[in-house]
Structures are given as C-alpha cells and as structure tokens.
Design brief:
The protein contains 27 helices and 31 strands. Strands 6-5-9-3-2-12-15-14 form an 8-stranded mixed sheet, with no helix packed on it. Strand 2 (19-31) and strand 3 form a beta hairpin. The chain is globular. The structure holds arginine and zinc ion (ZN). Its EC number is 3.4.11.2. Residues 451-557 form the Peptidase M1 alanyl aminopeptidase Ig-like fold domain. One of its GO terms (molecular function) is alanyl aminopeptidase activity.
Length: 882
C-alpha cells in the first residue's frame, strides 16, 4: 500500500537480466499459522548482460526474511545484503553461486490472492504476473527461466493432497502426523508459472493418448462436494488436447496434466505448467447447476489454459509488455477451437459483441493502450480486453492475410524457433513473415498504435460504365499520449449482392472473367484512402462490408433501412446478417432516443423480426442471436454524450412494442422449442433453449399473464439451470413483483448450498432494473451468502450492478457512483486487483452527458483522495482523471 506515485516501467528501458537462475530448489513447510519457504537458487552471471559487476537483485513483497546463505556462508543484514521494501540486494556475488533464502509468509492472512494464500481451507497459489515474489525473494521476471524442484510438507489429515508442477518424484511420512511430496518439473519456466496446492481434495481421473502414442494421466482436483461436477471440464480437456494436435501439431509434453478448482480466485484461470488452477466457476458444471453459457465458457477456458502449454509456457514472454504474445494468440486459438466445436458464426458474433461493446470502449477511454503497451505502473491493470481480445483480432488478421496454410507454417516456425525461450510479439510476427514471405512491416502498427480505426465508406454507381466504386477512408483517433497515427494494414472482406440477393462476381478490372471472379474478396487497405472499382455490374449492388468482421474497426456507411432489412435475409455471410439486424435495431432505437417523446417504431423492424421468428431454414442458433436487441452497454458505447436513462427507457419501449406486435409468433416459438428431450449441450439444443427463453422474456414484457404463467410452469418443471435461470430472469425483470420475490426466495432456498448457483442468483438481481435498485443491492451485500473475501461474490453483486444494471448505476442523483466509490475504497485495502477492476465504469466519465459525468468525476476524486491507495488503483484513478 502506498500513497506515493508508483514508478512507471517502460518498454524502452528493458535490460536483459544481470543474473540467470538455472535451478530452484524449494521446500515449503505449511502450517496453520503460516508457512516457511526454503529456496535454494543456482545462480550465474548472464553472459549477455553488459553489467559485469552488477549486484544480485531479488524481488520480494510482504516477506519476512529469516536467513540468507551464500555458498554455505550465512550473510548478515546491512553488511552483506540490504533488504529494502521490495528487494533483497546482495552487492557482491561471485560469477556463479548457490543462494539459500528462508522466508516466513502468512497465507491465511493473504487477502490479495496473489502468491500463496488459503481458499476454503486449502493452500493455493497465483503467481502471474508478480505473485512469486510474495512467496520468496526471486528475480521475478519472465525472462529468467529455471528448473524447479518443489518439496511440500504439511499436516497429513488436513492436507492429504500436495501438488506442484511437473512429475511427482518422491513422497513419504514425517513426524507429528505430517507428510511430504516432492515434484520435479523438467521444463525450465519463468516464476509466474509456478504453482502449489495443498488441501483435502478428491480427484477425477482419466487418460489421453497423444498422437505419438504416449498416455497422459489427466486429473481434476476438487473439494469432495464437487466431485460430480468435473465431467464436462474433463471432456473439454480431452477435446482441446486432440484439437491442438490436429490443428497446430502440438503434443502435450509432461506425463501428467492437472486442474484444480479454487473458490477464491481473482480471475478465470491460470496456466501453471502441468497444474492449471481454475476459479471454481470456470470448471465446475452440472446440468442442474450450470447454464449453457457456463458450459460453453468452461469449455473455452479449459481449452485456453491448455493451449497456453505451447503458446505461453514452452514459448513465453520476454517481459510483460509482450503479454499479448501469449494472451492474444491463445485467445485466437481458443476461439477457433470453440468455433470448431459449435457454430462458427455464433462464436464470431459473441466475440465481436464483446469486442465492440467493451474493448472499443476501453480503446476510447483514459486507459487506452496498444496491444503492446509502452509503459505501465501496475502490470495487473494490463490484463485487459485490448491485450486479450484485440490481441486475438490482430492474430486473426494475420491468419486472414496469410491464409490457413501459410499461417500454420508460420506457427510451426514460431514454436520451433523459440521453443524454451522468452520472446517478443515481434518475434511472432517475424516467424509469420519468414514462413510466408509476406512483408508485415506496416501491419506491426497494430501492436504499437492504440485506438480503434474508423473506416468511412462511401459508394457511387456509374450505370453507363457498369462500374460500382467504393471509397474507403481510414482514420485512427487520438488516445492518451498518441496523436497523428499512421494508416494501418487492414484486411477488408466484402461481397456485393444483386436485387434478388444473388452474390455478384467481384471484378476489380474490366477484363476479369465474370464466371471465374470470386464473390467474396479480402481487400487490403494500407493508405488513408482507397477507391476500388467493381466492373460489369448492371445495377447498383447492396454492399456486404467487413464480412466476418475481418478487422477490429468501426465501420461507417450510410445504410438505408431497406438495405439492412435486405441484408438480414439475404447476406450469405451469417455474421453480416446478424450485423445488419443489429444496425437496424440500433438505428431505430437511436432515432427514437433523439426524437425525445414520439414513440413511432418503424414497422420494418417488427416485420424483420416476424420473418426471423418464422424462419425454420436458417441456423436456429443464428436466429436466437439475431433476436437479441443490441445491449444498453453497446448503445451507450455508440452514442456521443449518452443519456443513459433515455437509452434505457427507449430500448424497453422498443422491446415491449416488439413483444406486443409479435405475441402470437412468440408463443408459437416458445412451444415449438419447448420439448428438447434429454439435456445436451449441442449447438442445436442450446439454440432451442435460447430461442425459447428469449421468447419467454419478451412475452413477460406484455402484461397479459401468458408469459408469467409459462415462466412459473417452466420454473416448476425445468430439469436444467438454463431453463430455470431463463424463467427466473424473465420474472425478475418483469412487473410481477410478487411472483418475482417468491421465485427468488424459492430459488435461494433450493440452491443455497451451491456457491456457483448463489453467484448466479446474486447476478440476476444485481443486473435487474426491477430487483437491483441501490437499496436492494445494499441488502445483498448484507446477505449471509455474501463474502467480502470472495471475488466471485463481489463481482456478481457490485461488478454486475455497475457493469450491467446501467439505469440504476447511472441514477441521475449520483448514488450509484458514490456507492461504487465506497466499495472500491473498501476493497482496495483487502484486494487491490479487484478494486482496480471494479472502478472501470467510473473511469469512462468523460464520455457521458454532463449531468452524469460531473458526478462520476466527483466519485473518482473521492477515491483519489483516499489515504493509502494501492498501486493498482492509483494508476487507474490517476490516469482517468488526467
Ligand atoms: N494467464 C491467465 C490467463 O490464462 C490470466 C492471469 C491473469 N493475471 C492477473 N494478474 N490478472 O489468461
Ligand atoms: Zn491466457
């Protein structure tokens, strides 16, 4: 904790480490009142470092130092070494030596959940990015890679299971009812990949035979009460292992792969070598307790962490500015995997929704940073949508530009060239260039320039020449510290449609043969302005632009509503069909917001939805997505100076108008999708449940009791959480106050012993403008199931309120803002990472209409004035007030 300004770390000041560590020998003595850590490092001077006589500098945080021994000689504080707050410095060290450091730590009091801590009685670790220094003194940077041997000693009764990275090589009993296990990891790794778990756990076991015929032991460790909730994660793991062999040629390397579920965890999951640690909510699932969305999320997170074994562990990051090297690439890998497991169009829609709603907002806000940032104060603040999602889009664009074969050649070369190394995003791009022969010099700007490019498209049709010209201009907005940006290299996929919806040949020169010309092309934009001519067209086509969302940009084109309706039912690109529907709905809602008062809803929107509801030929998963109106968050993101209350009100009006006009179609849709037999998580049955539950939610917007009765019946009869939650959510968001309270009470009664379900129960209330007004939120914080030490509970109430219940959070009296400020200040003392994440909605204050933004700013200033701000919160709050 500090009040002083934390130091800024800059990429331009990167220096290779002065010392390297070849081996780490760890011995943990775990007790109820703390843990003693004995660490012996085999150190040598780095021949690549210019600083020949550099002192040995080890990082540390919240450690009690007990002993330092260098080559068998005990060192004296002050004389031989200095222990400054965050470092242990030994001024004079030989070229090669062995150093033993003994530290005492208190996992039971560690509420930051970084380093070694306790979660429901079990010991566990989280070391990325800089948690290892909370365990022992160490050069805690990813370019120091060492072999680890770890001996864990603990009470046998309370900690029968003792885990660390690699292979289990020795075990035995000790005096006093204690025992030990020793683990050895043959692969050199950075300290952020170290992991340890000790507790009373049960395991689910399985095996996987790799492509070369090796049998891998797979184990998922959970608390005994969760034993029946591991099957889905295990199946997902096996599918991921197979997929990475088939698509990337990557085989697993150790003999055992373990996953552990932990209740108190700051994020989703962590890819520690051979011992992935997961937030319980990202691994445990059963039909009765997890929604379809949760099943899909678990599959993708299990895949993500598994894929890190190559993209992250075997090839790791040189420094934390390169974080997207592993995260962007791995998100790209997991999203392709999910697309292959389900519906590629739906997966793309989900990814783009997140990107456009949240990453674009980040890119337009005070914390905007490039995919490879140039500086940071607290690296934990840079685990962002930009690093992850935009980073994945950048890799996707390389894939688009190179095509699948050359991309695979590039990834093979990357893994081969850099196996066992700590490298940079530039090394990744270089491998792609070398394997493909393509020049990606300009493309690299995607890594260094922040901000979302805006593409403005205009067109003219020359009927005499039969030529359709498209003019595409790109501009990249200024972001903090960056102005006058250069044009980027952008792959722009498009098609043109004729009056009957036919795909027209795209002839870029008049001599091109119509029969062989493709109907979809990827244009490459490299300049601020381009004009493309398409020849041989007898009428003005309808353009289908930026297909599959081929680049993470804002696209501006003056579509007419007729064109959008046309694309909704004719575009051969499913993604663009969905996008046309979104644009139409956005246009209708926006014009109603602007026209304040008159509620005259364009009948074309109603008819377009009617057509959709009747369409049985289209992929039902796509129909289900198309029926979702653009979210409030997205509408706010698109608006300048948004008036949140007006957007909320208008969107609700449009929804209830649609529901009333389409009542019969909705009832039919509900019944048609009702019986889906045995519960399965296949794209088809997920789509059916989604359609059914969307229809239900809409029907509850009409107060004629049809929806209410269906919801109550569904709540009684549901055999799975998706349907239960669908009915509960619809009731909670309806005007049926009595049914709402009854349903919430019954649900809690039934599921109170299951933390993952209780989290959903909190969220459904916190996100509702009916059940989640501030007094109700405050009551949830006092609920016996709420736990200030559990990030999931904090997120499901406070995070969901500020991030999803926008009308209540942006209450014009400022109460939502001041509530958030209070909670952030409180949490900063126990868990700074969580505090700095929760504050995000306030940091966007400049965007909002003046009445809102003044109050948001006041709330932020109050946080800034708090005594003892963590580095995490300091950076976010100060940068957003600049
Ligand atoms: N590497 C982890 C992943 O798979 C996330 C680690 C996040 N760390 C943090 N300090 N937020 O994405
Ligand atoms: Zn990751």
């Amino acid at each position: 904790m500090r009040t002083n300004q934390p130091t800024t770390i800059r990429l331009s000041e990167y220096k290779v480490p002065a010392h390297l560590v070849d081996a780490v020998d760890l011995r943990f003595e775990l007790f109820d009142n703390g843990a003693r850590v004995h660490s012996t490092l085999t150190v040598r001077r780095n021949p690549e470092s210019a600083e020949e006589f550099a002192p040995l500098e080890l990082d540390g945080d919240s450690l009690k130092l007990e002993q330092v021994i260098l080559d068998g000689r005990e060192l004296m504080a002050g004389n031989d070494y200095d222990e400054t707050g965050a470092q242990l410095v030994i001024a004079r060290v030989p070229a090669q030596f062995e150093l033993t450091v003994v530290t005492w730590i208190e996992p039971q009091n560690n509420t930051r959940l970084e380093g070694l801590y306790k979660s429901s009685g079990m010991f566990c670790t989280q070391c990325e990015a800089e948690g290892f220094r909370c365990i022992t003194y160490f050069p805690d940077r990813p370019d120091v890679m060492a072999r680890y041997r770890t001996r864990i000693e603990a009470d046998k009764a309370s900690c029968p299971v003792l885990l660390s990275n690699g292979n289990d090589v020795d075990r035995g009993d000790l005096e006093g009812g204690r025992h030990f296990v020793t683990w050895e990891d043959p692969f050199p790794k950075p300290s952020y990949l170290f992991a340890l778990v000790a507790g009373d756990l049960v395991e689910k076991q399985d095996t996987f035979t790799t492509c070369s015929g090796r049998e891998i032991d797979l184990r998922i460790f959970v608390e005994p009460r969760n034993a029946a909730k591991c099957q889905h994660a295990m199946d997902s793991l096996k599918r991921s292992m197979r997929w990475d062999e088939e698509v990337y040629g990557r085989e697993y390397d150790l003999d055992i792969f373990m996953i552990v579920a932990v209740d108190d965890f700051n994020m989703g999951a962590m890819e520690n070598k051979g011992l992935n640690i997961f937030n319980s909510s990202c691994v445990l699932a059963s039909q009765e307790t997890a929604t379809d969305l949760a099943f899909q999320r678990i599959e993708s997170i299990v895949a993500h962490e598994y894929f890190h074994n190559w993209s992250g562990n075997r090839v790791t990051c040189r420094d934390w500015f390169q974080l997207s090297l592993k995260e962007g690439f791995t998100v790209f890998r997991d999203s392709t995997f999910s697309a292959d497991m389900g519906s590629p169009t739906v997966k793309r829609i989900e990814d783009v929704t997140l990107l456009r709603t949240a990453q674009f907002a980040e890119d337009a806000g005070p914390m905007a940073h490039p995919v490879r940032p140039a500086s940071y104060m607290e690296i934990s603040n840079f685990y962002t949508l930009t690093i992850y999602e935009k980073g994945a889009e950048v890799v996707r664009m390389i894939h688009t530009l190179l095509g699948p074969e050359l991309f695979r050649k590039g990834s093979d070369l990357y893994f081969e060239r850099h196996d066992g190394q700590a490298v940079t995003t530039d090394d990744f791009v270089k491998a792609m260039e070398d394997a493909s022969g393509r020049d990606l010099t300009q493309f690299r700007l995607w890594y260094d320039q922040a901000g979302t490019p805006v593409l403005t498209v205009s067109d003219v049709y020359d009927s005499e020449r039969g030529v359709y010209s498209l003019k595409i201009q790109q501009a990249i907005p200024d972001t903090p510290g960056q102005t006058n940006k250069k044009p980027q290299h952008i792959p722009f996929a498009l098609g043109l449609l004729g009056a009957e919806g036919e795909a027209l040949p795209l002839r870029l020169v008049s001599t091109e043969d119509a029969a062989s010309a493709p109907t979809e092309r990827v244009l490459e934009l490299t300049k601020a302005s381009h004009t493309f001519e398409f020849h041989g067209l007898t009428q003005k086509p309808v353009p289908s632009l930026l297909r599959h969302f081929s680049a993470p940009v804002r696209l501006v084109y003056p579509w007419s509503r007729e064109q959008l309706v046309f694309l909704m039912s004719h575009d051969p690109d499913g993604f663009n069909r969905w996008d046309a529907g979104q644009r139409l709905a956005v246009d209708v809602i926006q014009s109603l917001v602007d026209s304040s008062g008159t509620v005259d809803i364009d009948s074309r929107l109603v008819e377009a939805y009617r057509t959709l509801l009747a369409d049985r030929t289209l992929d039902q998963a796509l129909v289900a997505k198309m029926l979702h109106l653009p979210s409030e968050a997205y509408l706010i993101e698109l608006a300048d100076s948004p008036d949140v209350a007006a957007i909320h009100r208008t969107r609700e009006q449009v929804l209830s108008h649609l529901a009333t006009s389409l009542r019969d179609e909705l009832v039919a849709c509900y019944h048609r999708n009702m019986d889906d037999g045995e519960y399965e998580v296949t794209p088809e049955s997920v789509a059916r449940r989604s359609l059914k539950n969307t229809a239900l939610a809409w029907l509850l917007m009409i107060n004629d009791n049809t929806g209410r009765d269906l919801a109550l019946q569904q709540l009684r009869e549901a055999d799975n959480m998706t349907d239960r939650m669908g009915a509960l959510r619809a009731l909670v968001n309806s005007d049926y106050a009595e049914e709402r309270s009854q349903a919430l009470a019954d649900f809690y009664e039934h599921f109170q012993s299951d933390p993952q379900v209780v989290e959903q129960w909190f969220s459904v209330q916190a996100s509702s403008d009916r059940a989640g007004q501030l007094p109700q939120i405050q009551a949830l914080l006092k609920h016996p199931a709420f736990d200030w030490k559990n990030p999931n509970k904090i997120r499901s109430v406070i995070g969901v309120f500020a991030g999803q219940n926008l009308a209540a959070f942006h209450n014009p009296d400022g109460s939502g803002y001041s509530f958030l400020a209070d909670q952030v200040c409180r949490l900063d003392d126990s868990n700074p990472q969580i505090a700095a994440r929760l504050v995000a909605p306030l940091t966007r204050w400049k965007k909002f209409a003046p009445a809102y933004s003044a109050l948001m700013r006041t709330a932020l200033e109050r946080i800034r004035n708090k005594a003892e701000l963590s580095a995490d919160l300091y950076e976010v709050v100060h940068k957003s007030l600049e």
